[in-house]
Amino acid sequence: MTENLDKEWIDLITNALEMGISSAEIRDFLHNYRNHSSHKL
């Protein structure tokens, strides 16, 4: 992922990967989150 993410997001993603959540699931989550938050990140 080449998008600029806050350290908070990087930590969250790192933890998710350690818990066995796939990168595809994370990507889907981020995509959906951004759509619902109307780009407030």
Automatic annotation (TrEMBL):
Q: Which residues form the Sin domain?
A: 1-34
- Highest taxon of the source? Bacteria
**Any one GO biological process:** regulation of DNA-templated transcription
Q: Which GO terms describe its molecular function?
A: DNA binding; protein dimerization activity
Query: Pfam families under this entry?
Result: SinI (PF08671)
> What are the entry keywords?
DNA-binding
Q: Which SUPFAM superfamilies match?
A: SinR repressor dimerisation domain-like (SSF47406)
**Name the UniProt record assigns to this protein:** DNA-binding anti-repressor SinI
Annotated source species: Sutcliffiella horikoshii
Question: Gene for this protein?
Answer: sinI
